[in-house]
Each structure stands twice: as structure tokens, then as C-alpha cells.
User: Which sequence fits this backbone?
């Protein structure tokens, strides 16, 4: 027999309203839907901005920590461990991600500033869920982190070398930038196209 919520008066002829038990697990047929509340929290512009900026700060901190460790523990132009498929290969890179086009150092600073400014202004308004905010934060943090290095020393520290891969040596900021761009492009482009074609 269904339990009536405590304190609720029963009108003559009215159907009793079952009380929601506190021990009902999320996802159960009788459990309240918490997804709309979670989506509503992500629509808050200050919250979206905070998620994006915190991600950017974390990416920048990890990137600079790993660069500092490499600079202080690995000799320039050496690999550790030697002969391994994946090595810590310390180089100074004046080019773009993966060492491309080293002659355009100043242009990279301009592009990094434009990208960072655009994400800071328009990122929270771009829509999407948590994954997109993390991706935008990764792009922001990676762009600023590498931009700071280029502004101070004219180059960045690259050290991750996958010898079985076609790309050149890179760093944590490069991974955050490229990974974030792939997520954003997929969500804004390919994913929308696939939904429209259904």
C-alpha cells in the first residue's frame, strides 16, 4: 500500500500521493531526475567561467612543473632512458606545437594572445557541457603557458618523444591545446553534422 507523505491531508476522493523514500538510489525508476538540476548549474556563467579558468591554471601549473623538472634533471639534447620507445628528450623549441615553423615566433605570441582573449570573453557563452569547458580551459592554459615561455626566453621546453609516432617532440601544453581543439571541433562540427543527418 503506498505511503502518504507525512503531514499531507487527504481530501475526500483524492488519490494519495506516495512519498519519495530517502533511500531510493539515483537512476531507479522512482528516483527524482537530477540531470536537469546539474545542467542548470552548468548554465551559470560564473560557474562555467570558474571551471574553464581552474582547468587553465591546472594545465599551466602542470606544464611548467614538468618543464622545470626536465630542465633541472635532464641535459639539453639528451634522451632518458636512451633507446626506449618513449623518452624524455629535452630540447628548446622556438616553433609552434611539435616544433613546426620555428621562424614565426612573434606570430605565435600574437595568435596565443588572440586565442586566450577569445576564450576568456566568449568561452562561457559557447554552450556545451563540462567536457567542452574542460577542453576550452585546456586550450587556454596551454596557449598562455607556452606564450609565457616564448615571451620570456623566445622558446619553449619540449621533452615528450614518442619514437613510434610521426609527430615531433612536444610538451604538456601542446597536448592540452591539440586535445582541446579536437574535442571542440568534434562537438561543434562533426557531431552536429552527424545529428543533422539522422
Assistant:
Amino acid at each position: 500500500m503506498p505511503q502518504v507523505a507525512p503531514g499531507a491531508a487527504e481530501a475526500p476522493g483524492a488519490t494519495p500521493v506516495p512519498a519519495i523514500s530517502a533511500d531510493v538510489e539515483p537512476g531507479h525508476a522512482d528516483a527524482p531526475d537530477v540531470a536537469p538540476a546539474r545542467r542548470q548549474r552548468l548554465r551559470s556563467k560564473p560557474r562555467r567561467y570558474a571551471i574553464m579558468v581552474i582547468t587553465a591554471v591546472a594545465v599551466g601549473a602542470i606544464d611548467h612543473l614538468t618543464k622545470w623538472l626536465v630542465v633541472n634533471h635532464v641535459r639539453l639534447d639528451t634522451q632518458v632512458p636512451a633507446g626506449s620507445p618513449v623518452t624524455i628528450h629535452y630540447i628548446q623549441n622556438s616553433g609552434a606545437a611539435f616544433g613546426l615553423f620555428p621562424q614565426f615566433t612573434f606570430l605565435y605570441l600574437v595568435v596565443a594572445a588572440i586565442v586566450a582573449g577569445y576564450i576568456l570573453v566568449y568561452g562561457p557563452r559557447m554552450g556545451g557541457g563540462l567536457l567542452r569547458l574542460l577542453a576550452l580551459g585546456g586550450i587556454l592554459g596551454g596557449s598562455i603557458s607556452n606564450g609565457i615561455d616564448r615571451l620570456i626566453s623566445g622558446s619553449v621546453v619540449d621533452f615528450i618523444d614518442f619514437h613510434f609516432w610521426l609527430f615531433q617532440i612536444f610538451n604538456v601544453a601542446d597536448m592540452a591545446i591539440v586535445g582541446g581543439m579536437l574535442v571542440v571541433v568534434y562537438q561543434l562540427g562533426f557531431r552536429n553534422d552527424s545529428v543533422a543527418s539522422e
Notes: Strands lie at 79-80, 86-93, 156-162. Residues 45-196 form one domain. The chain has one domain: 45-196. The CA atoms of residues 158 and 170 lie 5 Å apart.
